[in-house]
Specification:
Largest sheet: 6 strands, mixed
Strand order of the largest sheet: 3-10-9-5-7-8
Shape: globular
Distance between the termini: 27 Å
Radius of gyration: 16 Å
Helix content: under 10%
């Protein structure tokens, strides 16, 4: 997913060899299930609840953080994207390996709640990134809103969020263990 030397602030839409398994429980465009398949499309209004996320290739006893980013106006894997166009959509940390295998985030830390794709925003691409937390559970600094209320921590502007800076501040590397992506289009568009 990440682009190599000389382009540290950009990445290309792609999936890892063992993609992060994610399912919305609704049918995608021309699909028989709601399973994400590295670039398939869904109606934005069908994605109002977070997807079920699982991954089998985990280290026993390890903890993980899931970051979901959205990229307005992009629906092609051939596009390279700059950091500035990414917005935060969902962040969950301290996901135990057994819980990740089972798709159970009940005991994890929701750093930022799921925000479904905006049906009025045109086509929006969502990228799911899974990272291992090398030092175990993290005491996350929960983001504040731009006015600074809610919790203490970094200012949260979901429209210009630096996800790599967030990961670095919490001791997590910036190379994802597993990825997946999909595009959501406005429900009134016929495809």
């Amino acid at each position: 997913m990440l682009v190599g030397a000389g382009q540290s602030d950009a990445f290309v839409l792609s999936c890892t060899d063992a993609p992060l398994k994610a399912s919305y429980g609704v049918r995608g465009l021309n699909l028989h299930s709601g399973e994400l398949q590295c670039g398939n499309m869904f109606r934005a209004l069908d994605l109002q609840v977070p997807p079920n996320i699982t991954h089998r290739r985990v280290t026993e006893g390890a903890y993980y953080v899931l970051v979901m980013l959205s990229i307005p106006g992009v629906s092609s894997s051939s596009k390279m994207l700059a950091q500035g166009g990414l917005t935060g959509q969902w962040i969950v940390g301290n996901i135990a390996s057994a819980d990740l295998r089972a798709g159970n985030f009940e005991h994890a830390t929701t750093v930022s709640p799921y925000s479904p794709p905006d049906n009025k925003a045109g086509t929006v691409t969502s990228v799911l990134l899974l990272f291992e937390q090398p030092a175990g559970p993290i005491e996350f600094q929960l983001p504040t809103n731009l006015a600074g209320d809610a919790t203490t921590g970094e200012a949260w502007d979901p429209d210009s969020w630096d996800y790599r800076g967030f990961l670095r501040r919490h001791g997590v590397g910036t190379n994802p263990l597993a990825t997946n992506w999909f595009a959501a289009y406005p429900s009134d568009v016929r495809r």
